[in-house]
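Dear colleague,

Thank you for sharing your sequence with our group. We've completed the structure prediction you requested, and as agreed, I am returning the results in plain text so they can be pasted directly into your records. Please verify that the sequence below matches your submission; if there's any discrepancy, let me know and we will rerun it promptly.
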Amino acid sequence: MPTTPTKFGKRDLGGDTTGAAVNAVPPKQETIVRTTTYLSLSETRQWTSTEGKPLMAKLIAFEDITIETVKGQTPADTQQVPKLTGKPTVVKDSKVRLMANQRPYEVALDKLSQADRDFVEKVRMAVTGKE
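Please find the predicted structure tokens below.
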């Protein structure tokens, strides 16, 4: 008797009785694109730490607007253009958010120079409308 038989039998995989191909390629899923928009509260400026280290960054709000769309569509196509409700948060838990190198960072207020803390306070007062 040969080690490899000349006739091979078929068996169903997963209970499929339709005879569909086992190695069929699944349908290609749509690529989802996530877009995050940050609310800028200042122009790019030089921030200085209490240790004297400089950083070029923008002050941004803690609120983000994130939209998910199918690749190739714009948010206007899908009617998903959310709006910011209320006033933006400038200081949260004694921290501010800075956008440096296209990435957001949270920085403790006590790590910033006095001039930068005064700037943040001016922006906070302008946003809240309180003097």
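Summary note from our side: Residues 47 and 55 are 5 Å apart (CA to CA).

Kind regards,
the structure core
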